[in-house]
Amino acid sequence: MKKQWGIGVLSIALVGAVMFMMQKQSSEPIVYDDEQKGLNQQIVIYFSHVVAENTPKGLAAQKFAQLVEEKTNGRVKVEVFPNGSLYSDEEEIDALLRGDVQMIAPSVSKVTQLIPEWQVLDLPFIFENYGDVEKVFTGEVGKNLLAMLERKGIKGLALWGNGFKQMTSNRHPLVEPSDFSSLKFRVMPSEVIERQFQLLGAKPIVVPFNRVYESLEKHEFDGQENTISNIYSKSFYQFQPYLTISNHGYLGYAVMVNKVFWDHLPKDIQEKMMEAMQETTAWNLTQSKEQNEEELAQMKQNPRMHIYELTEKERETWKQKFMPLYQEFEREFGSGLLRQIKKAE
Ligand code: LMR
Question: Which of 111, 87, 109, 116 is nearest to 99 (CA)?
């Protein structure tokens, strides 16, 4: 009897609570918990990229997301999707143009398909050191290059860096230009890079980043060029024991936003995002250098790796070999950009 009475009281209490909640819901706006506060006004930016999280680009994307959230008091949320989990490097520019993602940071080589003049940044030995890269990326030349994206419906926010590119192979050490003869190399889609390997007598094959590991494992090609950070984070070195420190090219990124999306953002949000971008870029250009150095030191511990650093004389031989690329670039695009870069350095 006592038990039945207890159940009755409980039922009345429950019905009362539900009625009270229903009344409250109809008269008040929906209340979100802390995490979701102001959700209805939040601007969400999907930022898609193809490399691992613990790489210069992956870390910079996370830092940018954090700074934007802080500076806008949570009004803007940048959701970062690494490892090509949303789009591969072959798909991401189109996804941005369609507005399916709002932000990407493809490597410069991939932008050359939209704006061929950007090949200037892929020219071998265009940068001697990290100082040169920083001057060009954050100065007038960088601004001019980013402005060229506008005609394609893209707002370029900054140029980020990964690091200098090195050569790897599964065949033998790559020291003399003749060591490249007849080898098949995976390359990013950029005419200058393809020509660079042709000048070495090698066969370049364009392969998207997300397929590189698998193709190396299947021995579909003999070598590739990339930064230490990409070689390390994606374990390319497992199948490519010969690593030449050549610092012959630089892998940079164009951080870009869909222009229609950008133009519709409130002015104060644009300003806060630009502020966050400047801080992130300064951080990225220092951090990327340190990360590549640390990971090279890690790889040197691996007894299966054969690491060779080019001497100054050998670098000079490579430079001479690549000279025709500069002439070809000038013939196609004039000497303006090249002069601006040399002046900035
Ligand atoms: C590559 O394709 O090797 C790189 O562009 C990947 C990247 O985004 O660093």
Answer: 87
In a domain, 20, yes or no: no
Domain presence at residue 31 = no
Number of domains in the chain: 1
Tell me if 115 is assigned to some domain: yes
Contacts of 100 (CB under 8 A, 6+ apart): 46, 87
Task: Please give the distance, rounded to the nearest whole angstrom, from the Cα atom of residue 51 to the centre of ligand 1.
Answer: 7
Residue ID of nearest Cα to ligand 1 atom 6: 209
Structure tokens that stand for 34 in this block: 């802390």
As averages over each run of 10 residues, the pLDDT of the chain (345 residues) reads 47 44 44 53 95 97 98 97 96 97 98 97 97 97 97 97 98 98 97 98 97 96 98 96 98 98 97 98 97 97 97 98 98 96 93
* CATH number of residue 179's parent domain: 3.40.190.170
CA-proximal residue: ligand 1, atom 3 (nearest): 209
